[in-house]
Amino acid sequence: MKANKEIKRLFVGGLGQSISEADLQNQFSRFGEVSDVEIITRKDDKGNPQKVFAYINIKVAEADLKKCMSVLNKTKWKGGTLQIQLAKESFLHRLAQEREEAKAKKEKSTTGSTSLLEKMGVVDFHVKAVPGTEVPGHKNWVVSKFGRVLPVLHLKNQQKRKIIKYDPSKYCHNLKKVGEDFTNAIPISNLTWELEGGNDPMSKKRRGEFSDFHSPPKKTAKVQKNEGPTAPLATRPKPSGVTESPHLPKQRAAQKTPRDPIALKLPRVPDSRSPKLKNVFFQTSSLETAKNRNSMSDDDIDSEDELRLMIAREENLEKTAWSSVNESENDPFEVVRDDFKSDFHRFHTARGVGIKNKVSCLDSEDNVGNDCDSDSGDTDEIIAMKKNANEVRNSIDLSQMEKSVHKETSLKNRKICDLSENCVKVQKGKNEVEIAVSHRVKSPSCKSLADSRSSGDADSVSESIQSEGDTEYNTMMKNCLRVNLTLADLEQLAGSNQEAPKEDTESSGQEAPAKCDKASNSHRTPGGHRKGRQCIHPEEIVASLLEGKEDTHGKQKPKENNLKPKFQAFKGVGCLYGKESVKQSSKEDVAYNNVNNDHNSLKLEDPRSMSMEKCSPFANGSSSELTHFQHGKKANNSKQIQPRKRQSTFESQGHRVVSPSSSEEGSRNSSLLLQKGKKSLSLAAKTPRRSSDEGCCHRTGKSGEDSEKRPDLSIPKAPEKSAGVSSRRDTRGSKTDFPLSVTSSSDVSAKDKHAEDNQKRLAALEARQKAKEVQKKLVHNALANLDGHPEDKPTHIIFGSNSESEAEETSTQEHSHAGEEAVKESMGRASGKLFDSSDDEESVSEDDSNRFRIKPQFEGKAGQKLMDLQSHFGTDDRFRMDSRFLESDSEEEQEEINEKKTAEEEELAAEKQKALNVVQSVLHDNLISSTSKGSVAAKKFKDIIRYDPTRHDHASYERKGDDKSKESKAKRKKKREEAEKLPEVSKEMYYNIATDLKQIFQTTKDASEKKDNRPWNEDSDGEKAEEFQDPAAPMTGDEQPSGFTFSFFDSDAKDVKEETYRVETVKPGKIAWQGDPRFQDSSSEEEDDTEETDDKKPSPEEVSSPEKQTTRFFFFSKNDERLHGSDLFWRGVGSNVSRSSWEARTNNLRMDCRKKHKDAKRRVKPK
Amino acid sequence: MRPLTEEETRVMFEKIAKYIGENLQLLVDRPDGTYCFRLHNDRVYYVSEKILKLAANISGDKLVSLGTCFGKFTKTHKFRLHITALDYLAPYAKYKVWIKPGAEQSFLYGNHVLKSGLGRITENTSQYQGVVVYSMADIPLVHIV
């Protein structure tokens, strides 16, 4: 039964809300072991439980399960109907299970995959199989196109309902193999912390695994190196070489990993060898095989020989030649390059020595002794460096990529360094250095460590080493492309070095350590340099602040960043060291270890820090490690001060040398100059020269490195940065050096530096501002002077003393320099020149000053006018024009303004006028009466205005009326005069009218009257009327004689009018009807009416009495139209034509009526 | 933008005078302010002095229009009235035609005014006289020759 029992997951639905897990457990425990109960309550939006269900993991047999289902399913229990179903396994459970399965599978596959395949006969299937062949024993499995066994798939097309057979043998498959080993998936919690990967250094670093404890072996190595020379130096390298040589073949045979100590051992071989090995390793990189190693060994030997040769050459030739030779050579050349590095180191040491000699170091030893010492020390250090470097590099070989990069960079750096150093050397012309180098190369072993430990020598050596280390560091950094970090690292290293000195002071007491200390001191000096230079950086400050452990931590960080790969290598080195130490020197090892321990205890509390320091040197190169160690160990304040001094001197020298040589330095100089400027601005006390010197000095030290870095990097950014850094360093270094020398403690100095840095920055900003201000002032003054000069020029005619003029001249010269003074002087000039009397001068100066003041009375436009006025009359007071003269002007001005304003309006008005003219012309063309109508329109417009007798404006209207009345009076007089004569005539007319009536009735005079009418209608213009009437008069024979007596024309008109009047009386209705339309139009004919009236008055023939005339006049003036109406009337009634036509028409009408009548009758009849 | 030349003014006034006759003078010489005609992009704008000053601030190539467009000069220097001038022509129009409401829409859609659609017409309207067409509600619709 037990076997049948399986863990099932049951879904129990329809539970009551009050159900608890315990209840369920009890309920189901009847059927099996309830392992887990999970009650889930579904709630609606408002939180009211809607349904409750549970999942139960139960270990139950199949039968029990069925029983359970049948018993409990759909039963009521605790307020709910149970509903039991088998549920899927919980997700987590399934996942775990799957993983387990997968694991098991994997194990199976790994262990028995081959066997399985063999079993299935598929072992060779990949080889044999032709695509499309079925896998025996497996249905639908086919060998696909590329030899993999894949299943034949039957895919259903969703849209077409068609099942497609996918035969992998016929298609290029895109199948992805899902990773089998997701069971190996690292738990999420570990994901971020553990990086999978191999054992290679990169991955280790990535994982954050660093070899912490490399320091002791290194120390031992160092100690060995250091102390080795004290004992038999010569023996030491040799045995190492011997030991290494056997090791090497072994390693080669075994083809051990690059970490193998073999590489480390190799470097132990004399200095020349070690660099060579390094080079070889670098070049070979990942592809290094046993052959390479063999060749490397050969190369090593060769390289040694070559190195010696090279050294000899060096003695004779300049370093440039070396570099060329080295370059010319191939692999060995590369080795040579490494040697060159060593050479460089030597050079550095030599340099340092030379510097020491020149500077007259504090050391009491002679130059020669120093040289020798330095040589020995250098050699020892170099050896150590080489060893370290070699080891490091060998270890690094594993990480070939990095190595290759390192190689390139290092090579470049070396070359550059060589060149620069060569140049320096050449310039210095130090034979001693070269000799020392040669000595070193020739007999590194022979040199006594004790000699080397002479402090001065050690210092020099350390400096050189440090410089090398720095260069290497830089190169490394460059390789990493983290220039900034490298700088920071360097700074941190410097900080560590600084820390070391403190401890060193303690350690100095011991002899063995003392040696190391000395060496370290020597190293330290560079460290001091670095400090001086780099302390400026905030990182450095931080490093300095973090002392001891913190320092180490700080170092570790940068190291980790940049030197992680190196760390691994370092580990290897450490191992190697350990091995070496064990193998090589059994005696010394113990002592060394002791010494190392002592060193550790004395120097640094933390081995870590040591290791860190070592690591950092590793990164830089083994040499750097040594130096760092020493730095860390040794630190005497006095020594520090000394190195600093040396630095300054050295730097100054180097600067001198470098400045002429390289353009880069020139750029640096420029930057330095800028900085100098800043400094000068900020620090008034400092003379520019001094600042420049300081800058140069500091610069040189770093510039050398920078220059080396620059060419190495070949990246534009890097050089810029370096330049910037160098400049900063220089400035800071200069600043720091002085204050630091005063301050004994490095920490304080560092802090001070930090503070100083900030202050400097602020000061620099201020200085810039000041400079700007000064520039502004200068410009200002210059301009002012320019302005002032013309004033002064007239004063150039000098009657006064010569001294003043001289002073003026000097002032002019000074103008460029100090504007303010110039101004003052110019003022003085102005005062001094024309007249000797001081009063006059003052007045003149006042005048000058006043002349260009804006005088209040000249402000504004009025002022301008006044100016103009005055300018017309000269400046003589007697004729000076006051503002009194301006008053009229102001009015004019206003007028002008108004004119200006109106100008536009005028333009518009003119335009309007034009338009109006055009309108006139246009209207003329279109309508004859348009002109008069225009006036009418105007009149209309005026009419709209209400006449107000009280207003004067409206007097015009009154006037018009008056004029009319006057005119009318005048006319009346005339009329009266005429009228006096007229009355008789009027009577006659009366009669005439009667006759006319008769005629009308008789229709005898119709024709004549018609003719009269026609002209009259057209005679709105008097002249025309005359013309027309002239012919008309003769026609009407009766009337003409009557009117002829007085005036030819008037009589006719009179007659006509009389007639019309009569007519009107006769048929008023018709007249009114016809007259109306004309009436409105004829308003314009008023004038004509008056004329007509005039005409009528003189007419003697008129019978109408003066009374009648007046009435007529009044009548006519009002109703001119009636005349027309009468005409029309006449036309209609009086004309024969019309009558005849009317008769004809009536006849026609009658006829029509009759016809129609008849037609209608006819129509009616038939109907 | 420039004032009209003599010839242009003449041509334009002749055209306008067809509709408003001597009332043209009222357009040119307005009692309520100075108005003038300006030519811009071959179009004639009737502008008040105020707007003219404002428009002077705008460069010619950027100026789209100002005031009221009265019409445009064709390439052959004839003048075509635009409908925008209706606002100024309608009040002064001498001859008017009123259209019955039923014919109004048809007319506005471009059809002719049939005799049946003619509601009123100014007397003495001669042939080829420029008229302004009104709806019976005295809303000016169009000016037609």
Automatic annotation (TrEMBL), chain A:
Biased composition (Polar residues): 451-470, 1139-1149
Chief location: nucleus
Chain intervals with Low complexity compositional bias: 659-686
Acidic residues compositional bias, start-end: 837-847, 1083-1093
SMART domains, per database record: RRM (SM00360)
Localization per Swiss-Prot or TrEMBL: Nucleus, Nucleolus
Chain intervals for the UniProt region annotation (Disordered): 195-270, 440-470, 496-534, 586-909, 932-987, 1003-1048, 1060-1112, 1139-1167
Residues annotated as domain RRM: 8-89
Keywords recorded for this protein, A-Z: Nucleus, RNA-binding
Transmembrane segment boundaries: none
Basic and acidic residues bias locations: 690-712, 749-760, 767-776, 812-827, 874-887, 897-909, 940-968, 976-987, 1006-1027
Listed CDD domains: RRM_NOL8
Compositionally skewed regions (Basic residues) per UniProt: 630-647, 1153-1167
InterPro entries according to UniProt: NOP8_RRM, Nucleotide-bd_a/b_plait_sf, RBD_domain_sf, RRM_dom
A Pfam family matched in the record: RRM_1
Name listed for the protein in its UniProt record: Nucleolar protein 8 isoform X1
Source species: Vicugna pacos (Alpaca)
Automatic annotation (TrEMBL), chain B:
Classification via CDD domains: Nip7_N_euk, PUA_Nip7-like
UPF0113 domain: residues covered: 96-141
Domain named 60S ribosome subunit biogenesis protein NIP7 pre-PUA: residues: 1-83
Keyword set, alphabetical order: RNA-binding
Family matches, as InterPro entries: NIP7_N, Nip7_N_euk, PUA-like_sf, PUA_sf, Ribosomal_synth_fac_NIP7, UPF0113_PUA
RNA-binding found in the keyword field: yes
Protein name (database record): 60S ribosome subunit biogenesis protein NIP7 homolog isoform X4
Source organism per UniProt: Vicugna pacos
Gene label: NIP7
